[in-house]
Amino acid sequence: MIQLAGIEKSYGDNRVLCGLDLAVTAGTFVSIMGSSGSGKSTLLNLVGGIDRPDRGRIIVNGEEITGYSEGQLTLYRRKRVGYVFQFFNLLPNLTAYENVEMPLLLNGAKGYEERVTAQLNSVGLGGKEDAYPHELSGGEQQRVAICRALIHDPDVILADEPTGNLDSRIGRHIMELLEGIAEGRGKTVILVTHDVVVAGYGTRILRIKDGTIGQ
Amino acid sequence: MKFSRLIRLLVLRTIREEKLLTCLSVVGVALGVGLFVGVRLASDRAISSFEADIRGVNPRSSHEIRHTAGIDFSEEVYVPVRSRESDSFPVIKTTGYLSGSQEAIEVVGIYTVSMIPFLGAKGGKRFNMEDYFREPNGVLVTRTFASRHNTRKGGTLEASIYEKVYRLKVADILDSDLVPPDAAIMDIGNFQEYFDRAGYLTRIDLATDEEGARDIEKILPPHLSLQEKEKVIENQRGVVASFRYNLLFVSLIAVLVGIFLLYNTVFVSVVKRRTEIGVLRGLGIGRKTVMALFTIQGLILGLGGSLIGIVLGQLFAYFSVAAVERTMSTMYGGVSLAGFLLTGKDALGALIVGGAVSLAASLIPSYESSKIRPNETVWEGSLEVRYRGYQRTFSLAGSLCILGGAFLCYLDYGKPPFDFPYLAYAGILFFILGFTLISPLYLRAALRMAKPAVSRVFKGTGKLAVGGIGGGIFRFSVALMSVAISSALVFALVTSIFSLRSSLHAWIDRNITADVYIKPKSCVSNYCFFPLSADVERKVKSYPEVAGMDRFRVLNVDLFGKKVVAGFGETGTLRRFGDRKYFGEGDRKRLERLEREKEVSISDFLSVRYGLEKGDVLELHTPRGKERFTINNTFISYSTTSGFIYLDRRWLRELWGMDDATQVSLYLREGEDVSSFVGKLKKDLLADYSLEIMNNRELRERILSIFNRSFTITYAIEFIAILVSLIGMVNALLILVLEKKREFSIVRYLGGTLSQIRDMIVLSAGIVGIAGIFLGTIMGPVISMVIIHVINRLSFGWEVSFKIPLLPLSALTVVLFLTSLAAGYLPSRVARKVDPKAYISFE
Q1: CB A74, CB B284: distance < 8 Å
Q2: Cβ-contact B619, B628 below 8 angstroms
Q3: Looking at this predicted complex, what is its ipTM?
Q4: Nearest CA to CA, how far is B6 from chain A (Å)?
Q5: Contacts with B377 from chain A: Cβ below 8 Å
């Protein structure tokens, strides 16, 4: 369960979120829509522990993360959150396998080789383990990013315009993958997008406008 | 977390990917560290050589008895000393020069019977006693010596010793670590007989305690002193410290430029990988881990550079040892530096320097990397924008550093608190730091001024170049500073050397006034204590061509607990025959007073170091007890670095009871041909004696050649400084290319040609180069003034007039500028290989 209450966030004079309230039940796939600059990505960053609100509380599975120290937030991101970005953000000097293993490596996991390979196989990237990001297509890079977001079994997957940089056919494939993750693995997925079709994959669609959420 | 795997994936992989940048940084650090190691090794070997000589063969010796004037003394004193302390070992020694290689050789006469246990120390090997004792010229040499001088058991060596040429027969090769490697050991009896030194000793080594030492001291005549060996070594270290530390400081500046290179590389890595760091932070990597990873990257590059630096250092050491050996022999007495091979300790020292350098260089960028937030994905320029906010603070701090540097230098100029110019060195480092902090503001101002002209002349290429530098002011400031520091170093050294040379010319004109100079050939130092034989003096004086002969003698005297050179000359002869052109009425009156009154002249060193001035009274220890002299004058002396006192010979006779000369200067009668007289002298004297006979011109040339030789290392440092600055520039421009690949691609898409991109890079190099060189021309003379008026004055006591060598500096400026332009070549080649499609098209 993720709860946001009275969240306010400004960047300089620009008030992005003004008293936003939101509750997301565990295992649901929530799509958040909104225009550019409406605060979608900011909301995602706040839930992901990447940014801090100016006011308000964020509670994830009963724990308030707004009071976390820098170190606690780092641990929170490392163990409980998986991120998927629009521009994939893979580490360019690491292979597909090495990119996916990174969260496990940071978590001090051992004996994970088969798990990483299986994860890559599950998204149709078997045989591409040693490929570097620049040797992969956009769709393949995004699938590697999804594997990286899932490999450490986080509670919540945050996806920021995951298909924004892909064509519609590949975008559809990626969305089906995320849908399967939410349904099949019972993960909470929060996706932000401005694309109505992409938002339609969510079990619940929310709109963000003037810094607050509307149904 | 498997940290080692993180290092492999995130550090080593990056280093592998950025081959060219890595190579440039590593080579830059290697050159700096290599130079430092080479120079350090040479000066350390010199110290070791002096120490080995003082310690002697017997490791148990704790004290030594020597003549206070630095000359040999009668062996009569040995009997009463031995009666009080049986562990006493007489030694007679001298420095000679091998005829072929002209290298120094220490011939040491020892009481062999009591020293046998130490001579075969390694493996207890017995040596060929029969040849050693039977042959009057039999010597034992170490394996290192034999290999260096290509000799073996039974071989002979020819050397100028005292004032004759002698042959030495190698009786056997020793394996003892206790024998100084440049020494040839003789039995003391053979030594005294063969070199006609019967009845003389140079020192008596003693193995005794404090009580024993005090007991022996009571029976010593006043001209002999007993000292702890450790104290003698400490004093010797102090004497050569200035020379040593000055060399090390200059080589440290090359290391400093290496720091800039490394800093730039790690800094760029942080800037380039900003997105990557953001992603890693998003994945849950902590700040400390990020900082550790970049610090490790810097350490790996620095230590890699240090490892190569060790190899380069070995190469530099080969040349440095020869240069240091020659300079030290001239300034401080014959020394032969045994071996130029780096030891494990030297290598460890190099690694420590490299490690410290890389840590210093990578700390700021690593800290910067840890500040990157997980949501930072826009990497281009964001760091620059943040730094822009600190520009005023940096400039203010820079100004304070420059003022602080000036204050420190002034302290050392006015009332130096230490014997060594530590504050002035710190002041120079503060200047460099200050100028570094101000450099972004300076570069921004320089760009603003250059922009209209560059845009008008170079059109679009010029605008792109100025824009490119403007967008990365802080990174280009680092490149600018590496050029500025190298230029400043080169300018400062050239100006200092030029000023010193000009002052030396003036000094030569004033002091080298006689027609002919004669001294023993074995004396390559400025001053030697062994006298010319009475026979040589008598023969020389008997020539009708000689109008006047100045018999000159040097001795050591104790002043404020330090050894100072005292020179005794015939003031009357100097006053009558000295060059009228340079002697004014005041000079003649001063010389007259020196001749008649109880007065002395002292070198500036003593005036600077002890605050002595004209009219002050100086108390000198003489064999007749303490004597007071009034200071008549202070003068410049470039021939010693520990102070010089000039007295009339009358005092040598009256107070020291001596009347011999270590060198003579001849003034010929008017109209005599100096060259033919010198030819005649050589023909008559060199058959029996090994002497150095020079006319006035030859001596002047000799002095200038010694001067040039002494600065061999300095020239090498200049060359390396230019090389490192070139690398710094290539490094900065390469970074520009790596960062601007996308911009270059857009230019190509818009119809820009490869040559336009090349021109842009070379133009950037030119702009940063000119700005750096200009800053160097400001910093260089400032540093030079500190070197001349503070460091040089306090270290060596040499007063030098500051003179700017306009022509050489102009030529050097052109060379440095062309070097900067050349630095643009390699990055422009890399830019040519950029594939526009890869950076513009996106799936």
Answers
A1: yes
A2: yes
A3: 0.76
A4: 8
A5: 87, 89
